Amino acid sequence: MTIHLLHIYDRNGNSLFAKEWSRKKSSNLTKVEEQKLLFGMIHSIKSFVTKMSPKDGKEGFISYTTSRYKIHFYESPTGLKFILLTDIFVGNIRETMKKLYSSVYVEFVVRNPLCPLNEPIRSSLFETKLETFMTGLSFFEDSN
Amino acid sequence: MTVFSIYIINKAGGLIYQYDHQKSSVEMEKTFSYPLDLKLEAYSDQVSVVFGQRDGIQVGHVVLAVNGKQTNGRKLEDGNDVIETIANEKNYPISIKFGRPKLTSNQKIMMASMFHSLYAISVQLSPVHGSSGIQKLETDTFTLHCNQTATGVKFVVIAEPRQVGIDSLLHRLYLIYSDFALKNPFYSLEMPIRTEQFDSHVLSAIESTEKTGSAA
Questions:
Q1: What total number of domains does chain B contain?
Q2: I need a surface site. Which of A1, A78, A82, A135 has the fewest CB within 10 A?
Q3: Which chain B residues have a beta carbon less than 8 Å from that of A71?
Q4: In chain B, which stretches have pLDDT less than 50?
């Protein structure tokens, strides 16, 4: 199993963090354009899902799968968005996504007074801890 | 186990067939005294709850009737404005009926073309080569399954997350489409499908999926 990439956005759609582990195909867009396209797509999916839902839901959009990859989505109540792209064999990783928020983002960004919120994360400590967290996941394996 | 609805989208993103299987929707009627403990706002031509949840009334629900009079957009049957009627203390106690907003046929067409573009973007954002678009979209209340044929027609089934046998239902829908839409001499390609035979076969395929988990 493979982890392709991770994106973190704030509630206004600014990219706070992006990291690639395994990426075989790059689109003909620039990094910034691609980040905006991804955010726009997730934003549209969220409104699509609320309108299409036959019942009142709590979590909303969770994930989608294509023939070759899968997107996992987690949004905190404050609007922070975590988007993880993996291969299609990864199951429901909702708890892992929550843990990524609570034990990596909150611990090493929110609790770091030198890390301004709502700005791209420039903390080597966060990057190291994130790397440890991701490589420790059972579905990480050889994502390079 | 339920199949909620079926959408068929042509290769240009137009909705050519839509069927809602589940008719019942949640509606709540309640009598309120002044002042109202919910915050209502007119939003995209409907009056909806924006704050305050109680007795099954949720944020996002819209006003369907006031004192037994149906609403028509932001107005009541008798021409009075919904917001003004609710704001007027003289009208209390007041009985208001709330429910989840239903998609109008125009909104369904919009949703279909929206899904068409989401499908295209998901291909473009793929980190690996040779990926298709969205085949399965999961949420906590429903799962959307999509099968795009080689000719670009998309069959979309919206069902309960636990529903099994969707793959065979999608395949069955494709067969019904080829047999009863494409072989119909009065059917012009890319146009909405209006054939009774098609409807009845779709219905029986859905019912058999719900009962046995297989559309065959």
A1: 2
A2: A78
A3: 122
A4: none
The answer to whether the Cα torsion of B117, B122, B125, B131 is positive or negative is negative
Same domain flag for B88 and B9: no
Q: Is the pLDDT of residue A26 over 90?
A: no
Same structural domain, B34 and B131: no
The domain limits of chain A are 3-136
Whole-Å CA distances, A85 to A20, B122, B126: 9, 11, 9
Residue B216 included in any domain: no
Q: Are residues B122 and B201 in the same domain?
A: yes
pTM score: 0.91
Count interface pairs A-B at CB distance under 8 A: 117
CB-based contact B118 A56, cutoff 8 Å: no
Same structural domain for residues B14 and B36?
A: no
Q: Are residues B173 and B69 in the same domain?
A: no
Query: Which chain A residues are within 8 Å of B156, Cβ to Cβ?
Result: none
pLDDT digits (tens, 9 = 90+) for A40-72: 999 999 999 999 998 888 889 999 999 999 999
Residues B166 and B201 both lie in one domain: yes
Express each pLDDT in A13-23 by its tens digit.
999 999 999 88
Q: What domain range includes position B48?
A: 27-99
* Chain B residue nearest residue A5, CA to CA: B127
Which of B72, B91, B110 lies closest to B32, judged by CA?
Answer: B91
Q: Provide the 10 A C-beta neighbour count for residue B71.
A: 19
CB B109 within 8 A of CB A29: no
Nearest by CB to A27, which of B100, B107, B125?
B125
What is the CATH architecture of A3-136? 2-Layer Sandwich (3.30)
Identity of residue A135: T
How far B141 CA sits from the closest chain A CA (Å)? 6
Q: Chain B closest CA to A132's CA: distance in Å?
A: 22
In this predicted structure, the answer to whether residue A117 has a pLDDT above a threshold of 90 is no
